[in-house]
Specification:
Layout: H1 2-19, H2 39-42, H3 71-75, E1 82-88, H4 91-102, H5 109-119, H6 121-124, E2 129-132, H7 137-143, H8 147-159, E3 162-163, E4 169-170, H9 182-189, E5 193-194, H10 197-203, E6 207-215, H11 219-230, E7 235-243
Parallel strand pairs: 1-7, 2-3, 2-6, 6-7
Antiparallel strand pairs: 4-5
Helix pairs in contact: 5-8, 9-11
The structure holds zinc ion (ZN).
Zinc ion binds at residues 53, 55-56, 58, 69-70, 72-73.
Length: 247
């Protein structure tokens, strides 16, 4: 019976593909399967590669040598242990993420896991849990899904690290951060997060990776790190698909 239902699903899927062939979400080219990126689409993504700051993960024009850190991290080290992103936030990656976030193109998530596994290979080697940056429940109702949790779930299956989607929650609904400065963003997300009682003991001494779609100023990462440390997390790392990089 199981085989029949699986075959039926395959037949339906191939039927759908004949009517609506799967297309690359970036280039619009026809591809073999839903969620695949065509070679044309790949070309527009600017993957972040070495040399980069060991701490915040920003790409640099020079080798950091033994110091290992950018000037900003030397002056004012971020709370988290490290941050990495797969690619730069540009017009192409913005369209990719917006389609995923608001356009119901959730099947794209399949492409994300290998990229994140590559960008975060150092931090993933010793991680205990993956935690998505949460949405407030009111925003979750209007958007229907938390894009960070979909990314974390997909990565969890890919690398075999436990995903705890409810271990950090947003206790305060914060206005959209669209055009806020770094300082305003920090104020905006201040005390916006908490760890539910049932997870507090579980985080103690653990190495945690926070997952989000975009790293902008680091304000959200900073605030989440503070609350995870409060409940005893030994290490907090940040892994995002894209990162805003100012020239
Ligand atoms: Zn840095």
């Amino acid at each position: 019976m199981k085989n029949i239902s699986v075959n039926l699903q395959e037949i339906i899927k191939s039927g759908v593909n004949i009517i609506l062939p799967p297309r690359c979400p970036l280039s619009g080219d026809i591809v073999d399967a839903q969620g695949m990126i065509s070679p044309e689409g790949w070309g527009g993504l600017e993957f972040i590669t070495d040399p980069l700051c060991n701490h915040c993960g920003i790409p640099l024009d020079y080798d950091v040598g033994e110091v290992g850190k950018c000037m900003s991290c030397l002056d004012n080290p971020p709370e988290f242990n490290s941050a990495r992103a797969a690619f730069r936030y540009n017009d192409i990656s913005r369209n990719l993420i917006l389609g995923f976030k608001h356009g119901d193109k959730t099947h794209i998530v399949r492409s994300f896991a290998p990229w994140l596994a590559q960008a975060g290979k150092g931090m993933l080697a010793n991680a205990d849990y993956l935690l998505p940056v949460p949405l407030h429940h009111l925003r979750l109702v209007s958007r229907r899904y938390n894009q960070a949790a979909l990314i974390a779930e997909s990565l969890s299956k890919h690398v075999g690290i436990v995903h705890l989607p409810m271990a950090i929650k947003r206790v305060r609904s914060t206005p959209s951060q669209g055009h806020l400065s770094t300082k305003d963003r920090l104020e905006n997300v201040s005390k916006a997060f908490d760890v539910p009682i049932k997870y507090r003991g579980r985080l103690k001494g653990k190495s945690i990776i926070l997952i989000d779609d975009v790293y902008t100023t680091g304000a959200t990462a900073h605030e989440c790190t503070k609350i995870l440390r409060k409940y005893g997390a030994a290490q907090v790392h940040i892994l995002t698909l894209a990162r805003v990089i100012h020239d």
